[in-house]
Amino acid sequence: MSYECFKVSSENQIAHLQLCWPDKRNSMTPAFWRELPEIVNDIDNNSKARVIVISSTGKAFTAGMDLAVFGTDSGVSGKSGGDKAAQNTAKLQQGARFHDSVAYYQETFSCLENCRIPVLAAIQGACVGGGVDFVTACDMRYATEDAFLSIFEINIGMTADVGTFPRLAKLIPEGVVRELAYTGRRIYADEARNVGLVNRVFPDQQSMLAEVMKIAGEIASKPPMAVHGCKKMITYSRDHTTADTLDYVAAWNASMLLPTEMQEAMTANAEKRPGVFVDLPAKRAR
Q1: 3-class SS of residue 44
Q2: What are the tens digits of pLDDT across the range 181-219?
Q3: What's the predicted TM-score (pTM) here?
Q4: The domain that contains 186 carries what CATH number?
């Protein structure tokens, strides 16, 4: 299936999503917000891969939300057609309509956090505005030396609202988040690595993608049910107390732990061969 904003490929249990709108700096057009969750949910729901890698093309990872979104989404723009009565009704509904639109955009990135498999982001060049929301919803982030991130919304009189703050404040020190949010300044790859926002920095995109694919391959070689459990527990522990998480992981393993997979993993390691593991089940269709 072809998409307007993404090129999607799959090999060795790794799904590779590439933003492919370089002449527009991979800005997030209306199609982007529809296509990303469609692609990710299809991969996850139908167990089409064990890892997702997201990269981009051109000089910028993404320039953030495209201005077309402000013009075409009436919930964001506040514009409405029709006669005077319809316009008055739309005005009264504006708050609810705006909230509904923001929830729609938030879900586009929440699908990355909610899917059962790890998502790795490979960032080159600029990653601004909505791009920060995008990559902070991924499990891991890697960057080229020239990459930078910016909470750009402050520069256009906005408070970032699609996912930056609830995730970023749990990834890096609060004081750094506040400085980036209040100033809109760029945080370059080396600083981002030093504060823990990105895992590793590479000299160029080619070497970055090669290494990220290697890491993805290592993850894909592990038992998918165990990887799913790790992702679930790490996200849960981020948002809950230690006591709650200990109770949850005990209950999780009581129902999800697979002794046969454990035995296969140990045997494969001893025999120095790839393990043969069961894939995650496809999700029940709604």
Answers
A1: helix
A2: 999 999 999 999 999 999 999 999 999 999 999 999 999
A3: 0.91
A4: 3.90.226.10
Give the mean model confidence (pLDDT) for residues 267-279: 96
Residue the block writes with tokens 């269709």: 285
Element (H, E) at 90: helix 84-114
Residue pair 141/198 in contact by the 8 Å Cβ criterion: yes
For residue 200, CA distances in Å to 9, 53, 193 come to 24, 15, 6
Tokens of 200: 């590793």
What is 96-138 written as a DSSP string?
A: HHHHHHHHHHHHHHHHHHHSSS-EEEEE-SEEETHHHHHHHTS
Structurally, how many domains does the chain consist of?
A: 2
Q: Which of 277, 255, 253 is nearest to 266 (CA)?
A: 277
Residue 284 has what pLDDT?
85
Residue 99's pLDDT band, with cuts at 50, 70 and 90, is: confident
Chain centroid offset of residue 250 CA: 28
Q: Which two tokens mark 1? A: 């299936």
Same domain, 234 and 129: no
The boundaries of the domain holding residue 248 are 224-270
Question: How far is the CA of 114 from the CAs of 117, 171, 276, in angstroms?
Answer: 9, 17, 26
**Rounded Cα gap, residues 200 and 144, in angstroms:** 9
Q: Is 25 buried (19+), middle (13-18) or exposed (0-12) by CB count in 10 A?
A: buried
